[in-house]
Amino acid sequence: MTPVDIVAMPVAEKLKLMETLWDSLCLQSSGNMELPAWHGEVLGLRLRRIASGKESIAPWNEAKERIRAQIKSH
């Protein structure tokens, strides 16, 4: 697969590809992947917003379906 092939893919297929790549990276790294500091900062902010009631959460499957529905409508 070339970058040109990826550019030509529909968005839904690109998202599936990204999900597959991410799953593969997680399996391959065995939890040894070092995350950038800003990831922790963003997660901390989101946890504080959830705790204060300023932000809500949804199960991953529900969120994923909502994202896919938004993509299909565009």
Condensed summary:
This protein is mainly alpha-helical and about 70 residues long. The chain is about 75% helix and about 0% strand.
How are the secondary structure elements laid out?
Layout (H helix, E strand, L loop, with lengths): L2 H6 L2 H19 L7 H16 L7 H13 L2
Key features of this structure:
0% strand; 4 helices; extended; mainly alpha; 74 residues; 73% helix
Give structural notes:
The structure is a single chain. The protein has helices at 3-8, 11-29, 37-52, 60-72. With 74 residues, it is an all-alpha fold. The chain has a domain at 36-74. The longest helix is centred in the first third of the chain and has 19 residues, at 11-29. It is extended.
Classification by helices and strands: mainly alpha
Distance between the termini: 26 Å
| pLDDT averaged residue by residue | 89
The low-confidence parts are none
The count of strands amounts to: 0
Tell me about the largest β-sheet. Answer: none
**Assembly type:** single chain
| Shape assignment | extended
Helical stretch tally: 4
How much is the radius of gyration in Å? 16 Å
Helix content: over 70%
Order of helices and strands: HHHH
Share in β-strands:
under 5%
